[in-house]
Design a protein that fits this description.
Blueprint (H helix, E strand, L loop, with lengths): L2 H4 L2 E5 L4 H6 L1 H10 L4 E6 L4 H6 L5 E4 L20 E4 L5 H8 L5 E3 L15 H10 L25 E4 L11 H13 L4 E4 L5 H11 L6 E2 L5 H9 L3 E5 L2 H8 L4 E4 L5 H4 L7 E4 L15 H4 L3 H14 L5 H12 L3
Parallel strand pairs: 1-2, 1-4, 2-3, 4-5, 6-7, 6-9, 7-8, 9-10, 10-11
Helix pairs in contact: 3-6, 7-8, 7-13
Length: 334
């Protein structure tokens, strides 16, 4: 038996998207510190393996996913029951039950906890840290930073405009992104447009409206290492409420994030001068809706451009001095 096989297993379920993974990093690091002798395994979609391992909070990934934001089956779990299973997926019995079916020695979950620990008006990072603290596990919601990626950026020093999102409710219109990109170019900034898998047409639509050259299009979905390098070494990231906004926070890259159906108080960046969250207050909407949210559409091109130019005036994400500080901070032991 190998030393790894002799280590007790801590299985964490958070089988969601990139933004969810990055918002869960503080909780994952709390678990890593609390159980240094355990093999920490994270159940999430296989496509996020590289991103999960980059957090240095998990040892292995157990591929698991379901359509939408459903709870995946874990019946393909190959080993003996985990020593500890932790549900960071949601607060319902479904996610708790798929972990309970593996017969872990101990299970931590929101569902069934008395009194309930769930607060609907709580920020996602704080929610899971407070959940762990209720079980005696220290976790800090601001512990979000990722180390600088070891690969070069495909567009160092550029403004990254990322128009995509998982649902139309969180997608600002392509013509508005194009107008913003055109204005930023007119102000002297290089702009590149990035997209995820299946978003090539959206990337081209924005680029055409902005008058960008083919070299400034990054369609097709970059591998995580290259995407991480793009964001870490960008001058600014402009996007909707999606995974790339969380990646900008993880790399302390200045950002402007456009919110619609969900308040930034629940999913936005930490309070930091490097990050601007644009949002028109109103009743909550459906973040997975089929049409752009009305609050998102109230954000105009002029407002978004002004916020982007303000960030660019005050922060230089590619300066050697800042990057040196960031590298040293990321290298400090946790």
């Amino acid at each position: 038996m190998t030393p790894a096989a002799r280590r007790p297993t801590l299985l964490v379920l958070r089988a969601l998207g990139l933004g969810d993974l990055l918002a869960g990093v503080p909780a994952l690091r709390g678990l890593r510190r609390a159980f240094p002798g355990h093999r920490v395994v994270l159940a999430l979609p296989a496509a996020l393996t590289e991103a999960a391992l980059a957090t240095a909070a998990v040892d292995e990934v157990f591929p698991a996913e379901a359509p939408g934001r459903g709870v995946p089956s874990l019946t393909h779990w190959p080993g003996p029951p985990p020593d500890l299973a932790v549900d960071l997926h949601g607060n319902g019995p479904e996610s708790r039950d798929v972990l309970a079916a593996l017969h872990p020695r101990r299970l931590l979950a929101h569902a069934g906890h008395r009194p309930s620990l769930w607060r609907a008006d709580e920020h996602e990072r704080e929610r899971w840290c407070r959940f762990l603290r209720a079980h005696g596990i220290a976790a800090e919601p601001d512990d979000v930073r990722l180390p600088p990626p070891p690969v070069p950026s495909p567009a160092p020093g550029a403004v990254v405009v990322h128009p995509g999102a998982d649902a139309p409710a969180r997608r600002w219109p392509a013509e508005r992104y194009g107008g913003l990109a055109r204005r930023l170019r007119a102000a002297g900034h290089r702009v590149v447009v990035s997209g995820g898998p299946g978003e090539d047409a959206l990337v081209r639509a924005v680029a055409e409206r902005a008058g960008l050259a083919p070299r400034d299009l990054l369609p097709g979905g970059l591998a995580f290492g290259e995407l991480s390098a793009l964001v870490a070494r960008a001058a600014l990231v402009v996007s909707g409420d999606t995974g790339l906004a969380h990646l900008a926070v993880a790399h302390a890259t200045p950002s402007v994030t456009l919110f619609g159906p969900v308040s930034p108080r629940l999913w936005g960046p930490p309070r930091d001068v490097r990050h601007t969250a644009l949002w028109e207050p109103g009743p909550p909407g459906d973040p997975h809706g089929a049409v752009p949210d009305p609050r998102l559409l109230r954000i105009g091109v002029g407002e978004a451009t002004a916020a982007a130019l303000e960030q660019l005036r005050h922060h230089s994400a590619t300066s050697p001095q800042r990057k040196g500080i960031d590298a040293r901070a990321a290298a400090r032991p946790r």
